[in-house]
Amino acid sequence: MKALWLIAVDGSPPALRAVDHVLLEAARDAIAPAIMLVNVQAPLPSDVTRFVSHGVVQDYHREAGEAALAGARFRLETGGLAYSQHILVGEPAPTIVNFAREQHCTLIVIGARGLGSVASALLGSVTSKVIHLTELPVLVVK
């Protein structure tokens, strides 16, 4: 069975370092894992969405997700690694975990983000929540 790795990408430098790490790991193996790039967009507040059409909201999420995924796509394409991309809407950590479970991923790869708070002194809050919510292995890349 081929490995299926989910890479959570928000466009940040730590997320791009996670993509770079996957490229290095894939180059070492004879069989590259299947890669799913995932970006999670926060839902817009209802006081905003009630004034615009559903299509406008979908376009906004798609455009923002595409922008967040651009650097990761470029790196994977340059490295010759195939991938699928997925732009989801919801609370980031549970959305990532649920999607990984539904897709039968074998690993979640995510960048670390130091946000300076006591709860997330070493890891970003999304990264910490993903680790706590999933039973899957999680690779955190600094």
TrEMBL record:
UspA domain: residues covered: 6-142
SUPFAM superfamilies cross-referenced by the UniProt entry: Adenine nucleotide alpha hydrolases-like
Pfam families documented for this protein: Usp
Coiled coil: none
Recorded family membership: Belongs to the universal stress protein A family.
PANTHER family: STRESS RESPONSE PROTEIN NHAX, UNIVERSAL STRESS PROTEIN UP12
Protein name: Universal stress family protein
Source organism of this protein record: Candidatus Accumulibacter phosphatis
Taxonomic lineage of the native organism: Bacteria, Pseudomonadati, Pseudomonadota, Betaproteobacteria, Candidatus Accumulibacter
